[in-house]
Amino acid sequence: MKTNGGPPAASGHSVSRDGQERRWRRMAQKEYLQAKLTQFLREDRIQLWKPPYTDENKEVGLALKDLAKKYSDKLECCENEVEKIMEEIRCKAIERGTGNEHYKTTGIATIEVFLPPRVRKDRKNRLETRLHITGRELRSKIAETFGFQESYIKIVINKKQLQLGRTLEEQGVTHNVKAMVLELKQSEEDTRKNVQVEEDEQNEAKLKEKRIQRTKRGLEILAERAEMVVDPETTPYLDIANQTGRSIRMPPSERKALVLAMGYHEKGRAFLKRKEYGIALPCLLDADRYFCECCPELLDTVDNYAVLQLDIVWCYFRLGQLECLDDAEKKLNLAQKCFKNCYGENHQRLVHIKIVPELTPVPNFICGTPPHHGLGNCGKEKILFLRLYLLQGIRNYLSGNGEVACDYLSKAHQLFKELYIDPTKVDNLLQLGFTAQEARLGLRACDGNVDHAAAHITNRREELAQIRKEEKEKKRRRLENINSLKGMGYSTHAARQALHQASGNLDEALKILVSNPQMWWLNDSDPQTNNCQESPSQESINQLVYMGFEAVAAEAALRVFRGNVQLAAQTLAHNGGSLPPDLQFSAEDSSSTPSTSPSDSAAASSASTDEDMETEAVNEILEDIPEHEEDYLDSTLEDEEILIAEYLCYVENIKSATKKN
């Protein structure tokens, strides 16, 4: 059976751990041999699909056996195993060449389909299709061909979820592309003996699909709230904060993209913790898409994007589909470059304060990176390098680079020894009232010193509580200032923009609004400030005339400002009794502004009906946002310890492997 080098995702099959480990050890070793043989063939410029290795009938030639003998001696491994793998390489090369010719003459493309780990057959298969069909048609074809239920699978191509309503061509799908199948439930064949189990799994699959859709909606709502004016006492929203927990100012469009990127990342990480890799991957890929909408300077100077690259590669690996990720090496190199930018070539800048945007749900859902307390506080971030070196070691092993893999795995093993925590020390901190997560992070930050860790955690709690209090007060003042400007007749949008330009100073914001009356015209959709009317009342005109303005100018100003006497008076006074030229055209247009229609009330009623669903979606997001700001740096390292030992064993056994018949 073909392997992709990773352990299988959780499934319903009960297999003994020893048997499972033996099976995956054989698979990993086969993967290494295949990569190494492919490397030899390229170096020797040997084309197995041509004579003397393939005859005119495309059958294997006698020369293949001699070549297998040569390479088995070079690798010091079983000749029969080498010959078998080389025959697989030869057959697939012929199959690929035939597909290329077929595509040139007929336009029918071939797609390499990578099936889930539980499938008990060659997991890499080929499927022919035309590229003008829709994603939905391809999903249906894959489901029918390989025995899946169509509604319970997702297709990932080019690191993106296949969009069902668009054609393959529109989505950049080409000949010989790789498609990975993510299964939300197991097939009927595995559960047909138990109808209740099947129904439960179907219900679970539907639930998972709904969770994915709720994740998307919940993050959209929270991202929109970040650009709105909401009461932080009653309405949770997502904000971007630096390592100290203080909000970061940035352009609205970039803020929204970053909020969505980090939101999807946190949701994907929550699924990773639960080992739900098939649901985690779409979230992580969506996070990657939104991160790419942020400015490159930001991505190069903070570690969030690098951590996401590690999580994506880890997810592919745990799904057993690392081979399907063509740019795994690129992602790992990108993460390494970013970590070097953040922490230095030899991690020397880990002892300095860094700015790392993190996700901050408000209120009571804080997630960010707290400040470092003094020198030597670098143990926590070393865990990122451990994961990086581990994945680089695995990838190089599966690519046939045994020596390079050994170097990376040795680095990972050394970091593991440095980061290992004595369980009794964790227990000591638990008895002091700290959580297990706080204990692990504190001990790693303080080189395993229990007293220093306790002080570190206490200081962090106190500092974070003070910062939260200050940020809460800042948001309260901002809301009050916006309401003050709205009380003067300005729209929410105009008030927010003026306060942004004035760095939160109410007096300066008012000056900006008075000097730029056209700002009032921006996106005034609030019912409370949208007092639109077809013509101003005579009473309002008389008020302005009584103040000394001409009746014509008064009426024009009232039309522009939709009957708001205060704004009309301020603008006329600031401009010598007349409207500025850029607002004069609005006097005519404003008279045609429609008033609220009955359909608006119906829309409001409909919106209230959806309120419960939106609340559910938001709460589901907030539940998965960790309370601790350094959650992404916390790990028991249990999985990493097992994998480091396993793959070190693989690379150490490469040269010591004996020949077997």
From TrEMBL:
Cell compartment(s), UniProt: Nucleus
Biased composition (Low complexity): 586-608
Domain (UBA): residue spans on this chain: 420-460, 470-516, 535-575
Region (Disordered): 1-23, 579-616
Taxonomic classification: Eukaryota, Metazoa, Chordata, Craniata, Vertebrata
Gene3D superfamilies: DNA helicase RuvA subunit, C-terminal domain (1.10.8.10), Phosphatidylinositol 3-kinase Catalytic Subunit, Chain A, domain 1 (3.10.20.90)
InterPro entries the record matches: NUB1 (IPR039749), NUB1_ubiquitin-like_dom (IPR041207), SASH1/NUB1_homeodomain (IPR058666), UBA (IPR015940), UBA-like_sf (IPR009060), Ubiquitin-like_domsf (IPR029071)
Major localization listed first in the record, in broad terms: nucleus
Coiled coil stretches, renumbered: 68-95, 454-482
Protein species of origin: Equus caballus (Horse)
GO cellular component terms given for this protein: nucleus
Residues spanning the membrane: none
Keywords: Coiled coil, Nucleus, Repeat
Protein name: NEDD8 ultimate buster 1
One BP annotation, GO: proteolysis involved in protein catabolic process
